[in-house]
Amino acid sequence: MTAPVVVEQVGAAATHPLRAALLRQGRPVEIAGDDDPATLHLAARLPSGEVVGVLRLHPQACAWRTAERPWQLRAMATDPAVRGTGAGRALVTDALARLTAAGADLVWCDARAAAVGFYERLGFVVVTDVFDVPLVGPHHGMVVGLPVS
Ligand SMILES: CC(C)(COP(=O)(O)OP(=O)(O)OC[C@H]1O[C@@H](n2cnc3c(N)ncnc32)[C@H](O)[C@@H]1OP(=O)(O)O)[C@@H](O)C(=O)NCCC(=O)NCCS
Q1: Could you tell me the pTM of the whole model?
Q2: Domain tally for the chain?
Q3: Is 90 exceeded by the pLDDT of residue 135?
Q4: CA distance 67 to 100
Q5: Domain of 68?
Q6: How far away, in angstroms, is 118 Cα from ligand 1 center?
């Protein structure tokens, strides 16, 4: 089954319910920089309008690779009801296209160990050993370079 999602830019608040339910247990739902004008929040919606996937993008230096215009991808999650149907791919593909158009040259993320394979399918590569994020668990640093015109 393929989820017929549409990806669109939204305000931070539209991403908070899914973020709270799936990513932020025990921690504030808001992340520093959510309201920064440069920050992009994307949502994947079903035809019903229901938000079934979210992510956030913001300009941020990468600790592992030198880049002129690096962006961080974070707060990525899809509703368990649609997992494996392409919603996550649709979100990341849209995100990378937007950032390429905006002139970004690198996107990086702290990837949960369980999500490394997902990001690899979207072109990211692991660039760190495993490290622990308190309250969340093991992660790897991952990056993907973007074509610069
Ligand atoms: C990781 C996550 C975002 C994937 O979302 P999804 O909607 O299931 O992703 P898709 O259905 O678009 O999958 C895209 C591809 O990645 C693969 N994939 C999905 N999750 C995967 C995983 N955890 N490990 C390896 N491959 C995975 C799919 O099989 C698919 O492969 P294909 O296109 O070759 O068939 C989702 O499982 C999730 O929200 N997990 C919990 C929160 C989380 O870990 N977020 C990431 C924080 S760093």
Answers
A1: 0.97
A2: 1
A3: no
A4: 13
A5: 6-145
A6: 4
